[in-house]
Amino acid sequence: MSGSLLQFAEVCDRLAATTKKLEKRALIADYLRTLSLEDAARAALYLAGAPFPETDRRTLNAGGSLLSRALAEVSEADRTAMHIAYRRHGDLGAAAQDLLEARKDHPASLTLKQLEDSLAAIAASRGPAAKLPHILHLLRTAQPVEAKYILKLAVGDMRTGVKQSLVEEAIAAAWEADPTAVRHAVMLTGSLPEIVAMAATKTLDSARMKLFHPLGLMLASPVNSVEEAMKRFAEELAAEGEVDLLIGQPPLSRALIEDKYDGIRAQLHCGDCSQPGRVELFSRSREDLGEAFPELVDAFASISEPAILDGEILAWNPATGRALPFSALQQRLGRKRVTREMQEQVPVIFMAFDLLAFDGNLILDAPLTERRRQLESLVARHAGATQKFEQRGQALLFGQSEDEQQSFSRLMLAGTTYLRTAAQLDRAYTDARTRGNEGVMLKALDSIYQPGKRGLAWLKLKRELATLDVVVTGAEFGHGKRAGVLSDYTFAVRDGEQLKNVGKAYSGLTDAEIDELTAFFHEHTIEDFGGFRTVEPLKVLEVAFNNVMRSERHDSGFALRFPRILRIRDDKPVAEIDTLARVEEVYNAQPDKPQNA
Ligand code: AMP
């Protein structure tokens, strides 16, 4: 008998009902074992919340509005009923179950195979009008609880607390395979369904690396100061029992320092001999970036050894050899077609900083030093092949005559230095900022590449731009436990004799300080608008922020982004607070200048 969608949906309900990981894993393993291998392969995929395997580039492309239209039609619910059902759960799938329960006649259950066929049909049809009949058909033939999980799968949020890694563990448990071998095989092939069959037939070691399916990207943890960065590495060393290396001596070259570039993170796959010229670029969210950057695809098409590179796509100024601000790169995004003119005006390069696979093998488990060594030799072999001569437009843009045109490689290697001392790190940070980059990254030399992990092996140091001394001009009651106190402050800088607002902050102070300010502002209220009151400009605060943007929200024309109060500056007279000119200066010093609030 083929696997029923009803049984699948019931398993999902049970998974959602428990928070215990072990229980979930056992549930999945037991369920998979009851199915034929074909159905177990389908079920594993859908349990992981994916309509198609990673290697499969098909997408459903059926958005929430199309799905709700289909649901409204099948359930015959009016707008109000749809709204109520959606608000009750905040989830289209759960709303569908409610609305479809109200139907009189309940259809028979679907099979996993029928779901697979319908998903294929939806993906294959172009445009909402062509997709709609397939979605309607699915919803009409599904039982309410089945419809719930069909829609959850389509929306991409199963809400069962099951990640792909847990399904991998369950596959291992179901067929008594080694969990690490299962995980590795999935990473190699990018296909959960294929691995089900391999685990069941004990042939996991026959899995071979396939390119063109995205691997998770390794992430970095933030640090705010050089001291914090040094301390983190000290902690890591302590955890390894190597703390004595630190005592009284700084030469702990346990990490690499790289610039933190402000571009678009991308994973580049190229060099598959069986598909010559094929290049894929994946974003952080596994989307295809190739269409937005066709010149990178062209440049890497000539590479003939299989490789997966991790790096940053940057808008590049070949004349200075530096990255252009992120805003330049942004002009290249969100366009249907990238014109040649656009390509000439905003040249792009791929700044490589890691190598995940080459020569037919994944090298994630090799330490960074080894991956870096391989990366350097790969770039040395291919930087020439990815070299392009500047086109006329760029030359003019950068004020060069045609004679002065330079060639530049689309493949560049991120520069590195060994971390040794705090002073050196401090200098590296300043140098990176001078080059127009965001800050620095620190990467543990012995660390393996952990897809999707934000650990301590990679740190990012982006210090605050600067701090500003501002004066509070307005105070507002907070929310939650701060409902009774004036905890949100609008603040201003000086502009000649006037004060101009630049932001609003509500974090950074202790409860005692907020109480003190509440009492103060009650006394110094100018106008009381209920929740908000304007106050006499007397209290000076020092605020930190991530960046400054131009904004119509405040009368200064600027807004601080993510402002945090560092302290109350009772020592500072209002006459000495920062000026609008200073805000403008900070704004202009940013490598990237955000435009909108
Ligand atoms: P965040 O997005 O704030 O978590 O910072 C991590 C991001 O920094 C990565 O996703 C990359 O896009 C970016 N980045 C810039 N330069 C580097 C580098 N040298 N190594 C790793 N990530 C980098």
Number of domains in the coordinates? 3
CATH superfamily heading of the largest domain: DNA ligase/mRNA capping enzyme
The unreliable regions are 240-251
**What's the architecture of the largest domain, going by CATH?**
2-Layer Sandwich
Q: Write down the overall geometry.
A: globular
What does this 3D model show about the protein?
With 597 residues, the chain is an alpha+beta fold. It has three domains: 5-155, DNA ligase, ATP-dependent, N-terminal domain (DNA ligase i, domain 1), CATH 1.10.3260.10; 219-461, DNA ligase/mRNA capping enzyme (D-amino Acid Aminotransferase, Chain A, domain 1); 467-589, Beta Barrel (OB fold (Dihydrolipoamide Acetyltransferase, E2P)), CATH 2.40.50.140. It is built from 21 helices and 23 strands. Strands 3, 4, 5, 6, 7, 8 and 11 form a seven-stranded mixed sheet that branches. Strand 18 and strand 19 form a beta hairpin. The termini are far apart. Mean pLDDT is 88; it is low at 240-251. The structure holds adenosine monophosphate.
Give the helices and strands, then pairings.
Layout: H1 5-17, H2 21-34, H3 37-47, H4 64-75, H5 79-89, H6 92-101, H7 112-124, H8 128-141, H9 144-155, H10 164-174, H11 179-189, H12 192-200, E1 219-223, H13 226-239, E2 255-260, E3 264-270, E4 279-282, H14 294-300, E5 307-317, E6 322-323, H15 326-330, H16 340-345, E7 348-358, E8 361-362, H17 368-382, E9 387-389, H18 392-397, E10 407-409, E11 411-413, E12 416-418, H19 422-434, E13 439-444, E14 454-461, E15 467-477, E16 486-495, E17 498-505, H20 511-523, E18 525-528, E19 532-535, E20 540-544, E21 547-550, E22 558-561, E23 564-568, H21 580-589
Parallel strand pairs: 1-14, 7-11
Antiparallel strand pairs: 2-12, 2-13, 3-4, 3-5, 5-6, 5-7, 7-8, 9-10, 13-14, 15-16, 15-19, 15-20, 16-17, 18-19, 20-23, 21-22
Helix pairs in contact: 1-2, 1-9, 2-3, 2-10, 3-12, 4-6, 4-8, 5-6, 6-9, 7-8, 10-11, 10-12, 11-12
Bound molecules: adenosine monophosphate (AMP).
